[in-house]
Amino acid sequence: MSETTAGTGRETAAHDTVEAAVRAQLTKALGGVRGMLEAAVPTIAFTGTYVAAENIRLAVGAGIGAAVVLLVVRLAQRSSPQFVLNSLVGIAIAAFFALRSGKAEDAFLPGIILNAGYAAAMIFSIVVRWPVVGFIIGSVTGDPTAWRRDPGIVKLCSRLTWLLVLPCAARVAVQYPIYLADGDQSGLLGAAKIAMGWPLQVAALAAMVWLLARGRTPIEREEPA
User: Which residues span the membrane (predicted)?
Assistant: First the structure.
């Protein structure tokens, strides 16, 4: 048995219920408190610098510089740079939009579009009865689609997916009208993005934990051939 297979087996064996498996995987996906803070710091640096200096290039440099510092710290500690890299890519795309147009508020447009896309994709997955959270269960059980044979699990996964949709939809509903408003809205957009970033994710995760804590659906694992 390979080390990878053994590791997967230990992870699978650690969870006896669907609820425990989904809860663990969602926590891992968010990267914990540190991962969520690393996602917020470059935005704080960009917004704070622009509000103080009103210089887009300086603000972009501050945002990217903050992400690079966080990446160096991760590499020095030999820990996973996944969430910092995600943040670095995000601030780089935001910088491209802002520098191309010369408007600081355009740095927030990619995030608005991304959240709208996430919300639409997850709603579609619910409508066609392939809720995205179901694939978390599949990653634990070793069968990516077996969960669909149980209507109860499909219903649970649909509810959990709705809880992931809500933060994305809320961000679009609040931030897009601000973006469309007259004048420089970068300071307000930055504040809204920070306030609606990890705090909303934590709230969604808390709601999921509450929902998952109410049930104990056993995991039916595939038997090795």
Answer: 56-76, 83-99, 119-140, 160-179, 191-213
